[in-house]
Every structure is written in C-alpha cells, then in structure tokens.
Write a structure and sequence with these properties.
It is a single chain. The protein is an alpha/beta fold and 482 residues long. It has 23 helices and 10 strands. β5 and β6 form a beta hairpin. α3 packs across α12. The protein is elongated and about 100 Å long.
C-alpha cells in the first residue's frame, strides 16, 4: 500500500474532483452505493425517537471518556498489563511504525532469504500512519485480509471509504484485477465466485503468517479488553492464527466500562452497514493462556497519539475525538456521493475527514477539502455520537481563512468589503442603489456557477425601495378608502 502524503505532492482537491465528475462509471458506482447504505441505515433506525435516545446515550459515553481520557488510558494500560498484554505509547505515526517494526523483529526469528509475513485485519489507524509501506521498506511482506482492503491493495490503490474500501470499483474491474494478478485465476464476473477466490488466497496466507496486526474499535479500560468488529472472520483469524498479535489503537478509542459497549455497538453497526450487530464481535483480553489451544503467545497494544492530544486540548474541535468511524456522515454527504473518497486525497475523506485531516497533517495540507461542503447539515444529523460536524467544518474554514496567504488574497478582501457594507446601513443603501442602477452590466457567465445554474441578476429595485413604494401605496389606499 502507498502511504498517504500531504496534498502538496498531489494534484489539488479541485483537480481530483473534476476528474471524478468526468467519469460516468464512478458517478454510477457512488450513487448506487450511497443510496444502498442510506436505505440500510434508515431501515435500521426506522424509529427516529429510538435513534435519538441511542445517540444521546452514545454521545454521553464518549464525552465521559474524553473528560477522563488521561486517567482512563492509565487504567487501560494497567489492566492490560495485568492481563498479559504489553502496552506501548507512540506520539507520532513514524514512531508507531518504527515501534511496530521493532516488536516484530524482536519476536520473529530471522530467516535468510524469507521475508517476515504480516497479515492485517482492517485498521484505519494503520492506514493513517502508512504502516504497510514502512514495514515493506524493511523487508516485510504485508497483506490486507479484509476483502475490500485486499482488493484495493492488489490494485495498488488506497481505500475510497472507511467502511467499504473498494466501493469505487465495479465487479468487472475486480474480475479483471483478479485474473491479471492472481495466478491461474479465470475471468469471472460472478460476485460469489470472486469472493470465494479472494477467500481462498487469504486462507492460505493465514496459515503462513508470522504476525497479525489489527485495529481496535473500542478499548475498555476497566477490564483491559480490546473490541474488534467485523463481518468476514478475517479479523478473528488475523488476531488468533499468527503467534504474535499487534493491535494499533488511537487513544480516543478508550471507553470507561464494559457496560458502555452495547449502546456503542448498536449505533456503530446500524450506522455503518444497517446491521443490528456485525457477524463477529471479538473481545480480546490476553494472549493465549496455558490451558488454551489456540491464539497468539504475545499480544502488544500500541496506543497512537498522532495529533489526538492536540485535538483533545482544542476546546472548539475536541468533539472530533468522539468519532467511532462508522462512515454515516460520508454516506449522507451529497458531495462525497458525487466525488467519492479519492478526490479528497487523504486517509479520512468526507465530512469527518474535513475535520480530522487538517488537525493531523495541518490546515495548509488539507484545508482545501473544507470547501467540499454545502453545510446542509445531514452529516451532523446522522452522526451516532452527536458530533456537530457542520460547526467543526465551519471552524476549520475560518482557521484556513486566517492564514496569511489567504487573509491577504482577493477573496478575503471581497469578504472584508462585504462585512463593511453590511455593518453600516448607509453604505449598504448606497451599494444596493449602485448595483440596481448598473444591473445591465452584470456578467452573463460566472464560472463555475453558470454552466449548471442560472446567473443571478440584481433586481430593478432594492428591498428598501420596494418596501418604501409598498408603504406609500398602502397609505394612498387608506386615504381613498376613508
């Protein structure tokens, strides 16, 4: 997998979005997939009042966890250590990658001419830090075991969606990919056969893997338990078949108690895929014990910061850390539904990406994506943990506008003039009168507005003039009636 880089090394957001909009196939893929996911979620939350109660409870749990975050992390470390899980702390993505490499090299004996084989369950945290690339640069072979992640890895692409990584690919493209990349694989567009082919390849790799790496959906402080959700069984195999399991967990994933898990599971699975519960709910509290026949002999937990402490200390953006990575905000975003994930040029796309990525990699690197929002509010309405995404996106826009390179630009001066006019009534009246008098000179084309919309033209009269004329007419009518 290729690690994500800052937008400085890539085409700009606008260029990427234009490329996607020019592809009818991608447009159809995104439209159909988003419509399907929205319908599934709507069926899962048919009772709006029930959803609101679950949302309020889930928001309370996550907010409580944030209010005690430092203490909960220490409790989690202590309980995991008692259970036999070795806990490590990584301040940056680079530190996490190097730490994971060292753990692997210390645990797996060196074999001359044979690379260490790593198999991975689905993990956005490892995607965020570019772990695959780092390990491969040190001679290790990393294989994604989630079917969607396996497909995009085979295609040498990055995920387009945090829940459905290969959502941008049609079955014909996957069929061609399998026939070209997997030995002795005939071309078939039968979806069940394609899934079977992928599973067969992965099953063989599970038997050979030296190391299993996973993400963590929730880390439960009071029991030292790691919770992983999945539908394919690959997560369970990744964490039990190899002798070493390394779990990578953002520090915001910790929750206080095991009793807090059920409501969070309910809103996560229903919001993500419309399921009442995922096929597999894995609760990992220790490595293999003496009386157990399977499971890893060693479990390591890497607690990843990578900018999360800054988010935690930012009162205006701290709510970002409530995110449980369900993808509902993307599924209901009209912009994401048109351009998909790759147009954003980042690990986390869509509304949550517009809030997270500028905080992780900087507003200069990812501030442009904040423009990809109509502020319709749908993302905030469907968020199962009540993150006020439209407010946070507006905050990120404002912070970007305050950067020197933007605050001195043409657009910034236009807005300053707009503010000046609206703050002073006399200036506003003069400006309105001038615009109405010169309405015939208004442009007939305004790119990028005019290709798909009617160009607005000033009215013949200002609102004040119309109201004044209306009042005069009413006075005249009143006199005649008397």
């Amino acid at each position: 997998m290729t690690a994500h880089t800052s937008s400085d090394a890539q085409p700009g957001f606008r260029e990427r979005a234009i490329q996607v909009l020019a592809s009818p196939d991608l447009q159809e893929n995104f439209h159909d997939a988003m419509a399907f996911l929205r319908q599934k979620r709507a069926s899962a939350f048919a009772d709006e009042e029930h959803f609101q109660r679950l949302q309020a409870e889930s928001q309370r749990i996550k907010q409580e966890a944030l209010s005690q975050l430092p203490d909960l992390l220490e409790t989690l470390e202590a309980r995991c250590t008692v259970n036999g899980i070795q806990v490590h702390w990584a301040e940056t993505g680079a530190e996490a990658c190097d730490l994971i490499r060292q753990i692997i090299e210390a645990h797996v004996p060196h074999r001359e001419g044979q690379p260490i084989r790593v198999i991975k369950g689905k993990s956005m945290a490892t995607e965020e830090i570019g772990l695959n690339t780092h390990l491969e640069q040190h001679g290790m072979h990393c294989l994604e075991s989630d079917m969607g992640e396996f497909i995009v890895q085979l295609a040498k692409q990055s995920p387009s969606h945090i829940i459905m990584p290969a959502i941008h690919l049609r079955k014909q493209e996957i069929a061609r990919l399998f026939s070209e990349k997997l030995p002795d694989t005939p071309y078939t567009e039968d979806v069940d056969r394609l899934i079977g082919i992928g599973r067969q390849v992965l099953r063989e790799q599970f038997e050979k893997a030296d190391v299993g790496i996973s993400g963590v959906n929730f880390a439960i402080a009071d029991t030292g338990t790691l919770c992983l959700l999945e539908n394919e069984g690959n997560g369970r195999l990744s964490t039990t078949a190899p002798d070493l399991h390394i779990a990578v967990c953002g520090i915001e994933k910790v929750i206080p108690r095991l009793s807090d898990l059920p409501p969070l599971l309910s809103v996560l699975t229903r919001s993500a895929t419309g399921q009442a519960i995922t096929t597999y709910v894995n609760l990992i509290s220790s490595p293999r014990r003496l009386d157990e026949k399977d499971g890893p002999s060693a479990v390591h937990l890497v607690l990843l910061d990578n900018g999360r402490s800054r988010m935690f200390q930012d009162a205006e953006l701290q709510a970002t850390l409530r995110c449980i990575r369900c993808g509902a905000c993307m599924n209901h975003c009209p912009v994401y539904a048109k351009i998909g994930g790759h147009a954003y040029g980042s690990v986390y796309p869509g509304p949550i990406g517009q809030v997270i990525m500028p905080q992780i990699e900087g507003i200069r690197a990812h501030g442009e994506m904040t423009e990809a929002c109509s502020l319709n509010g749908a993302c905030g309405e469907v968020c199962p943990v009540g993150i006020p995404l439209p407010d946070l996106i507006r905050e990120q826009r404002e912070r970007r506008a305050q950067l020197p390179e933007y605050s001195r630009g043409k657009e910034a001066w236009i807005w300053r003039l707009w503010v000046l006019g609206y703050r002073h009534p006399q200036l506003y009246r003069i400006w309105s009168r001038v615009v109405t008098q010169l309405r015939r000179l208004s442009p007939r084309r305004l790119r990028p507005w005019s290709p798909s919309r009617a160009v607005p033209r000033p009215a013949r009269q200002t609102l004040h003039e119309r109201m004044k004329a209306h009042a005069a007419q009413m006075n005249t009518s009143g006199k005649h009636s008397r």
